[in-house]
Write a structure and sequence with these properties.
single chain; alpha+beta; three-stranded antiparallel beta sheet; 7 helices; globular
Length: about 325
């Protein structure tokens, strides 16, 4: 009888332990990679015809991706993309326009080519970023690290935002936009405890479109001289009617809504790609395996940025749309 009772108590104990472990409340909604970002600016020098230099604001954005596995943080990935500025001058050497272009490679991708104070005492940018990532993971805390001399406040802010997204079940990804020179595009969505993605939305932010209209932006006597910035509203909130005055032209927002609705109704498997036109860098509309998609026939704008962003999100959560 004593032996039977002992076996019973052992079985009960194992049941309780297993039950507690199985019902443990998660810290993060689902495993996967959560990305947060921040739009910033960087000052770079532009050179005038007389060889003088002037600083100008250019677009930049910071990303931090946090990877969760078995409800634990297993990795951080810090990166940043910057841009160049190209001025245009009149015959008197005065600036008439400035165009921007995001770098093809991020800081992390540039490696030693970033040339931060060439061979900085604490190491090139990508080395110091790696040091931050490892310290956060090892100490289980996102904080400043004394052995890092790069400015880390923004990286800390964005890393904490990514962790909060993981707790709230908010996923997303960001990349350069359709023009690859002055806009970024992002996708955001919800994720549930089963790792399923829903409520996808797309938006974009442009750089300089509004600030270029400021009075005095090209006047050396103005306080606003060459002070460019990100637009105060997103593209969805503020983009004007397209079609150069054509009253029948569809709005950009309407076409993005059509694309978004299709994704939310059908999910995403990466098979949809932008249409390519021979001899052109413009990629308007979409196809799947070379075949037109009837439900997306009205989407004639460029959505290569949106597709790049949602493919990135798909890589973060490969089973997010699986049945």
């Amino acid at each position: 009888m004593k032996k039977i009772f002992s076996v019973f108590m052992l079985a009960l104990l194992l049941f309780v332990v297993a039950g507690c472990g199985g019902n443990k409340e998660r810290t993060y909604v689902a495993d996967g990679t959560y990305m947060a970002w921040k739009l910033t600016t960087q000052e770079v020098d532009i050179t005038f015809p007389d060889s003088t230099k002037k600083k100008v604001n250019t677009p930049a954005y910071i990303t931090v991706a946090v990877t969760i596995h078995n409800d634990e943080v297993v990795g951080y990935y810090i990166d940043e993309r910057q841009a160049t500025a190209t001025p245009e001058f009149d015959e008197n050497g005065n600036i008439t326009n400035v165009t921007f272009a995001f770098n093809d490679r991020t800081k992390k991708e540039l490696g030693y080519d970033y040339s931060m104070e060439w061979m900085a005492p604490q190491g090139e940018w990508f080395i110091q970023a790696g040091r931050l990532e490892r310290a956060w993971l090892k100490n289980n805390k996102v904080e400043a690290v004394s052995s890092v001399t790069i400015t880390d406040e923004d990286y800390i802010e964005v890393a904490n935002a990514a962790l909060q997204k993981a707790k709230d079940g908010k996923v997303g990804a960001i990349t350069v936009g359709e023009h690859y020179d002055y806009d970024v595009v992002w996708v955001e969505a919800d994720i549930d405890a089963n790792g399923k993605i829903s409520n996808v939305v797309f938006d974009s932010q442009l750089f300089g479109r509004v600030s270029k209209q400021k009075e005095g932006i090209y006047n050396p006597a103005s306080a606003d001289y060459l002070k460019f910035d990100w637009d105060p509203e997103t593209k969805y909130e503020s983009y004007p009617a397209m079609g150069h005055g054509d009253a029948n032209a569809k709005r950009w927002q309407d076409q993005i809504d059509t694309f978004t609705d299709y994704v939310n109704e059908n999910g995403w498997d990466g098979s949809i790609v932008p249409n390519a036109t021979a001899g052109s860098t413009r990629m308007k509309g979409v196809n799947a395996g070379g075949e037109a998609i009837e439900a997306l026939a009205s989407v004639t704008i460029e959505v290569k940025g949106e597709i790049a962003a949602i493919n990135m999100l798909h890589n973060f959560f490969p089973f997010g749309w699986d049945e």
